[in-house]
Amino acid sequence: MEVYYYTRKKCPLCEDGLLILQKLQREYPFKLIEKDIEKSDELTEKFGLMIPVVEIQGEIIQYGIIDPVTIDKRLREYGS
Description:
Elements (H helix, E strand, L loop, with lengths): L1 E6 L4 H14 L5 E6 L4 H7 L5 E4 L2 E5 L4 H12 L1
Parallel strand pairs: 1-2
Antiparallel strand pairs: 1-3, 3-4
């Protein structure tokens, strides 16, 4: 399973969310793919002020403040 994490540099919420995802990665086997939206005009336009954004299996699960309970629940559902 691949989890895309859309971020940008100097983003405290992004740093916090990354720690949550790394912790969850110990429980669930997923590949974490980080994408800096500032490296792509398309991603900057798409996500702009929404970051950080967590996408699992093509579905945006959460953006802004990342909640570990919500992400955990979705990882469990996708892992079933």
